[in-house]
Amino acid sequence: MEQLNGWFTDLLSDNTIFTANTLGFYWGGFVTTVQLVFLSLVIGMILAVPLAIGRGSKRRWIKLPIYAYTYVFRGTPLLIQLYLVYYGVVFFEGIQDSIFWVVFKQAFFPALIAFTLNTAAYTTEIFHGAIKNTAKGEIEAARAYGMSRKLMMRRIILPSAFRRALPAYGNEVIFMLHASAVASVVTIMDLTGAAYYVYARFYAPFDAFIFVALIYLCLTFGIMFVFRKLEKRLLAHLRPRGA
Amino acid sequence: MNKWITGALIAGALVSGQAFSQAMAQESQDAIRLGIDVPYEPFVVRNAEGDLEGFEIDLGNELCARANLECSWVEQGWDGIIPGLLARKYDAILSSMAITPERERQVLFSLPYYNTPSVWITARDRDIDIDDKASLEGLSVGVQRGTIRDVYVTQEYGDVLDIHRYGSSQDVVNDLKSGRLDLTFEDFPIANDAIDFRQDDSPYKQLGDSIKTPTSIFGEGAAMAFRQRDKALAAKFDKAICEVYADGTFDELMEKYFDYDLSVRPSEQDCAE
Prior knowledge:
The complex is a heterodimer.
Chain A: H1 2-13, H2 20-55, H3 60-75, H4 78-88, H5 101-105, H6 108-132, H7 136-144, H8 149-179, H9 191-202, H10 205-234
Chain B: H1 2-30, E1 31-36, E2 45-46, E3 52-53, H2 55-66, E4 70-75, H3 81-86, E5 92-98, H4 101-104, E6 108-114, E7 118-123, E8 140-144, H5 148-157, E9 162-166, H6 169-178, E10 183-187, H7 188-194, E11 204-211, H8 215-218, E12 222-226, H9 231-246, H10 249-257
Helix pairs in contact in B: 2-9
């Protein structure tokens, strides 16, 4: 222990970058990143459920607009979407005097809107794919019980589809965490923003970015762990016996 | 006896050698060459006739006249401008070179002769007193990340202002215009190009004075650079710089090329000798 302590003290002895001040920046960035990613994922998922059902609808006027939405948001870079929401909204005449300005004045909400729309588009496609791939046997069994379409959706298709969508959705969560690094371009002090600041302040790109990379790694590891546990519980019925 | 003769001969050789090298120095100092990177408007450009002109050309010629030196200009690209000086392609650099500790290890700097200021800018209808810190609480200011302006604002106003850091100065200007920012603290030449704030009916205005101090943040400014050993030559130019400031010649030249103040008046202490 003493040895470890000594090693640690030596390691930090000629360190001028990681002071309480810069660590405070990183902590603030950590909180902002987690907030931003968590909120956009939750809202995105809530949006994605009805959109995914609508995406599989037989009615074209429901299906096509949703398809267009997911196509546009999956087909353009998140950075561009963020720029458009953040710098684009100010070109609407008189927005500064409207009630929306409270939301668009800060950088946080435009970023949240862009991230939410982006992740909702991907999640819609993930859920839609899972719904489409529901085993025919399950649907036929539900029909045989005389379930209406609504009831069948609620009791059979959605619970089954969500479980099967879990691994793909776990990936989307990790992608979203990493994609959130673009938030710093609209002045949000997220983890990457904090790293940029330390880099620019001390001209130390390696130290600043390796530290923030380690934090992202820890976060990713936490997300992977949670999804591993969830998959183990919720997908138990799909594993071969004894495995 | 032999020893005495040898000693006398050596002494004689030393004395004459010294005289000779002094004569050489005299000759080379009467005609000196100034290195400059062209073009850097409005400091130096090549005009239609092929001659160099601009603020630094005028200033350099003026300084040379006062130091009683015959000066000629040598063009040199920025990357090789210090190696060129050390390789004796010219005797001094007069090319908007900012004084930095890294360069000070290589060259000898004169007194700084100019420094571009930074300015606070806000919308014309805003009533903000930048010196009354308490009243600034909660206002937002935009700066370009990692610049000296970022350092200054963080250090001096970090506890009251909400600092937004942008990747480019273009983004800062955009958000000032969109109304997201109450203030910006910007390099004067950049602001001059990008924001309309100089006229009485401009949509934006300058708050307080232009800022060039503390030099620990803003740097001392641009100076002439010499080889480390040419202390006498540097002293001549220091004296000339003091003179052009003292008798108003610098201000005349500045007004000819600029409509803002980039002077860094040397202190009496610097001009004492």
